[in-house]
Amino acid sequence: MSSLLNKPALWSLIALALSPLVAPQSEAAETKIAVAANFTSAAKEIAAAFKDETGHDAKLSFGSTGKLFAQIVNGAPFTVFLAADQARPIKAEQEGAAVAGSRFTYATGRIVLFSQDAELVDGEGAVLQSPDRFDRLAIANPATAPYGAAAMEVIEALAVPVATQDKIVRGDSISQTHQFVASGNAQLGFLALSQVINLDQGSQWVVPTALYTPIRQDAVLLKTGADDEAAKAFMIFLKGDRAKDIIRSFGYGVE
Are 97 and 73 in contact (CB under 8 A)? Predict the structure, then answer.
């Protein structure tokens, strides 16, 4: 019986039998994801886990939601859009730039008033009423960054004095806003909780959610990703427990 199969033939049969198992890795692909700046750290961890689990490589591009949306409608080759709001993904669907029915909320964000100075911010954000205690208050541009819009809602809800508002400096994105505060160019700023949740230094006030509209962050599959297996796999992965655990670890709410 052993004479009927020589060793080369036997190895060929084994390779043929195993080929379906290794095919998915050989088909691993790259896909381009547009990511809202507040989600930078979480997205990097998710992309690494996604590659570990699927073999696909998620190439991430970060920016303010408004600027990313403008790039998408002008033909940027992104396949998935992770926004910091619901409005732009909905608009992408309405304008035919996204796959209808693919949109879902992947995270709910929180904002925090933060300072590198351990004594500046108390548990109620009272420093906002004392403009003589700081030179600059950083927020993200409300026109393009949902976290900036939320910050302005808080400022209005608290009736923050004009003298404080006169000290506002605006970052193009929440990432640039964070840089203003981290560098000391602004003594305090409204940031995404995810940006400072793991810091042991400084002082912060996690703003009560009653003071601003919930920051529901939606993901949507773009038309350029409709036939992209890696993009579709990323959307599925983002809904899974492994991704949700990462998202929660950065202070976001998950449905």
Answer: yes
In a domain, 7, yes or no: no
| The model's pTM | 0.84
Tell me the CATH number at 156: 3.40.190.10
- How far apart, in whole angstroms, are the C-alpha atoms of residue 36 and residue 184? 24
What are residue 107's DSSP bridge partners? 217
- Are residues 100 and 39 part of one domain? yes
pLDDT in tens, 117-135: 999 999 999 999 999 999 9
For residues 109 and 194, is the Cβ–Cβ distance under 8 A? yes
Same domain, 145 and 172: yes
C-alpha distances in angstroms, 201 versus 116, 141, 192, 234?
Answer: 7, 26, 16, 35
Q: Is residue 20 part of a domain?
A: no
- Are residues 49 and 100 located together in one domain of the fold? yes
Name residues whose C-beta falls within 8 Å of residue 198's C-beta, 6 or more positions apart in sequence: none
Residue 18 lies in a domain: no
Summarize pLDDT for 26-47 with one digit per residue, the tens: 478 999 999 999 999 999 999 9
Full domain range(s) for residue 82:
30-108+214-250
Number of domains comprising the chain = 2
